[in-house]
Design brief:
mainly alpha; 3 domains
């Protein structure tokens, strides 16, 4: 595996910085993956990946600033485009799945699921549980049940129950 970071600190001139931002904008507009951009910039300018990430962020920021249409409108247009792909009878299953993934990303649903590990952090061993009195066991159970109910109430959406056919 190749490493993208350089060992020595490299400084570039203001002119080179402007040139680099223009290059990154061009590569982004071509649909290049950030890793490809990092590799190209590392070879050309010998910068660390952290520095390159800052230039990528700056380029994206400048691209968004130059938009004449509000970003919310662009998101809405993208959403309805992906919905049309899903509803199109001619779309393949792969296209529909990809459209669904993009909708999830637009709506922020693509984030990894949070672990419910915090619900079970009583740190009890089987021996501890066996040695508990009935009252202690019931109290631990109620505590876990209360946390689970609180967690359930904070979920952003619920699945509607199916009606009997």
């Amino acid at each position: 595996m190749t490493t993208l970071t350089s060992q020595t600190r490299t400084r570039i001139s203001k002119e080179q910085q402007i040139q680099l931002v223009q290059l990154v904008k061009h590569l982004l507009s071509l649909g290049k993956h950030p890793l490809e951009i990092k590799r190209a910039v590392t070879l050309e300018f010998n910068l660390s990946t952290r520095s390159i990430n800052r230039y990528i962020a700056r380029a994206r920021h400048e691209m968004v600033e130059r938009l004449e249409v509000p970003i919310e409108q662009l998101r809405a247009e993208s959403f309805f485009f992906y919905v049309s792909v899903i509803n199109d009878a001619k779309s393949t299953q792969r296209e529909r799945l990809r459209a669904r993934e993009r909708i999830d990303k637009l709506l922020g649903l693509d984030k990894p699921a949070q672990s419910r590990g915090s619900l079970w952090q009583l740190n009890l061993t089987p021996a501890d549980i066996q040695n508990m009195s009935d009252e202690e066991l019931e109290a631990a159970y109620q505590s876990l049940l209360k946390e689970a109910n609180e967690q359930e109430q904070t979920t952003p959406y619920r699945i509607a129950p199916t009606s009997p056919s």
